Amino acid sequence: MTYSEHFKAVLKLGLPLVGGHLAQMAIGFTDTIMIGWYGVPELAALTLATSFNHVLFLFGCGFAFAIMPMVATFASRGDETQIRRATRMGLWLSGFYFLLVLPVYLFSKPLLLGMGQTDQTASLAQSYLQIAVWGLLPGLAVMVLKNYLAGLEYTRVVLWITIAAVFANMAANYGLIFGNFGLPEMGIAGAAIASVIVQLLSVVLVVIYALRVLPQHQLFVRFFKADTEMLRRVFSMGLPIGFTMLAEVGLFAAASVLMGWIGTIPLAAHGVAIMLASATFIVQLGISNAATVRAGNALGRNDVLHLNRGAHVVIALAMFWVAVSIAAFVIIPNPLMSIFLDPNDPEREAILAVGRGLLVMAALFQLVDALQVIHLGLLRGLHDTQAPMVITALAYWVIGMPAAYFFGFVLHWEGQGIWLGLTLGLTTAAVLMMRRFWARGAQMVASQG
Questions:
Q1: CA 321 vs CA 24, 316, 429: distances in Å
Q2: What's the burial of 380, exposed, middle or buried (CB within 10 Å: 0-12/13-18/19+)?
Q3: Domain extents for the chain?
Q4: pLDDT, tens digit, for every residue of 53-95?
Q5: Alpha-carbon torsion 40, 41, 44, 46, what sign?
Q6: Which one of 80, 187, 359, 363 counts the least CB within 10 Å of its CB?
Q7: What pLDDT, in 10s, does the model give residues 365-375?
Q8: Torsion-angle region of residue 289: left (phi > 0), alpha (psi -120 to 50) or beta?
Q9: Which residues are within 8 A (CB) of 130 and not within 5 positions of it... i.e. 6 or more apart?
């Protein structure tokens, strides 16, 4: 393929994935906004509960994200049997994971109290989690099947199903939280029920699509027949992905804790800046997913030229978005942050002042964050997940977090120092992942021949 053909293929594959990630983010925004309208204690509990759920859900998604590169590789070889085996075992492992964490959700209050939460907040959060957990299994299944479809380059349906989930979530929240449409007013419990409904709707839609469009894969024929060899392969790829995601999520969660030590205004500014940085990162994540599929195809075809050209294209697209993001953060920081702030808030100007400094740091780490996530996607496409797990643990927790503490509190650079530490961790991850991919990527593909 020529470079122009690679660009067209990546855009066709990546844009729906970007849209799907943005739509998924919109579901979280909707929950937060509607519960915020309902009550402050419920909002605090929802924030705590969703953070708790987010960590456990993302870790469990490691098995789902392992499916995308495996399916892409098998598809390039025309091996439909392997596609079926890998996807089924991804669903099996998601089911085992659900059973493993179920008690943690059902009896979460003691854990939340142990984290220093108030009794009221912990009780409300547990009431949410005890309901929301029943959406975990269909939610994980949706992730497996979305990655199965993305690995086959059926990305538009992933986007449309997620958009449908956004609107279903809005309607269910509006009815069940506030008691509209003749439904009972249930507050935070209503938000939990709405999330379960949305996950069930999503899994039904994605299963119907998969069965109708790809009947030859027979995903659910003899579904309960054990496949130990493929189970082991998916597990060995998926577990490191789960730990890799946990390392990054934990890094930013810990940074929020450090910002809270400085004060309320720096923490609020940090929250706004992270929202903006997350929105730009979502685009890079979609490009990274496209990189995973393209690298998986190259691996299946034993095509080093295809791998290298595809890598050049996804990196070029990522750098274009880096330039757009940096320009926005540096040129129009106030209008961007004002989206999240009440114009009548007496502390608005103080938050904006701190936030401007943080967005300068965010502009700095746009480049390295993009490079690390793109090369992480490329390595995943080559079924290389254990080395990235070690790299992220080292970069984020041996270098990034200690540096954030040192710059923020020992040198008294406060919020900007903490973000400088994050940037150092992300830079380390980017350099090590780039080195691994460009030093070993071609060898990995060539060795398959």
A1: 20, 9, 20
A2: buried
A3: 14-226, 239-449
A4: 888 998 999 999 999 999 999 999 999 999 999 999 999 999 9
A5: negative
A6: 80
A7: 889 999 999 99
A8: alpha
A9: 105, 106, 108, 192
